[in-house]
């Protein structure tokens, strides 16, 4: 769990998925404005970037300049006070049901997941900052000592 609140900046538009180079243009804008991205989540009509909250305004302005020039986008939203919890382990890509075992307990406790990003060896979950401690404990409880997947607390 990252110890500081994040901002989740989402750009949406019907042409996002069919516009070549869209990720490169957005990522370049963030790079040129010295914004580090902790997580990217993509959907059929959206791309979301998690950045530390103190960089959120600068990141949003950089992305806004890109979307003003590109007809692929309809809107940009910024959600503040977002927590980032990452579960890591090479077994994530090799073991079925890991995503359900991580997110299921959150659903049972009515903790809303704002965005999810996954890769071969990690699952990143973004949720409301107020739910971070409870969510972290629920996820941690999913895995017994010596389990295949490890949870790391970011410092």
Description:
This protein is of the alpha+beta class and 155 residues long. It has two domains: 6-81, 2-Layer Sandwich (VC0802-like); 85-151, VC0802-like, CATH 3.30.2130.10. Helix content is 29%, strand content 31%. The protein has helices at residues 22-32, 56-68, 98-108, 132-141; strands spanning 6-12, 39-42, 46-52, 75-88, 113-119, 122-128, 150-151. Strands 1, 2, 3, 4, 5, 6 and 7 form a seven-stranded antiparallel β-sheet that branches. It is globular. The chain starts with 5 loop residues before the first strand and ends with a strand.
List keywords for this structure.
single chain, seven-stranded antiparallel beta sheet, 7 strands, 155 residues, VC0802-like, alpha+beta
How does the major sheet shape up?
Answer: 7 strands, antiparallel
CATH class of the largest domain: Alpha Beta
Summarize the amount of helix as a percent range: 25-40%
List how many beta strands DSSP finds. 7
CATH homologous group name of the largest domain: VC0802-like
Count of DSSP H/I helices: 4
The shape is globular
Note the quaternary state here: single chain
Rounded to the nearest angstrom, the distance between the terminal CA atoms is 8 Å
Q: Give the CATH topology of the largest domain.
A: VC0802-like
Number of domains: 2
The amount of beta strand, in percent, is: 25-35%
Radius of gyration: 16 Å
Overall structural class, as computed from helix and strand content, comes to: alpha+beta
Low-confidence stretches: 145-155
The overall pLDDT average reads: 88
- Report the CATH architecture of the largest domain: 2-Layer Sandwich
């Amino acid at each position: 769990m990252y110890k500081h609140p994040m901002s989740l900046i989402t750009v949406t538009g019907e042409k996002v998925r069919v516009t070549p180079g869209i990720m490169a243009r957005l990522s370049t804008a963030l790079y040129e404005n010295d914004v580090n991205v902790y997580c990217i989540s993509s959907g059929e009509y959206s791309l979301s970037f998690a950045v530390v909250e103190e960089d959120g305004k600068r990141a949003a302005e950089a992305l806004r300049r890109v979307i003003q020039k590109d007809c692929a986008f309809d809107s940009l939203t910024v959600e503040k006070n977002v927590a980032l919890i990452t579960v890591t382990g090479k077994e994530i890509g090799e073991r079925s049901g890991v995503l359900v075992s991580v997110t299921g307990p959150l659903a049972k406790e009515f903790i809303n997941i704002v965005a999810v990003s996954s890769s071969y060896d990690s699952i990143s979950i973004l949720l409301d900052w107020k739910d971070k401690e409870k969510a972290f404990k629920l996820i941690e409880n999913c895995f017994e000592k010596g389990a295949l997947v490890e949870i790391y607390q970011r410092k």
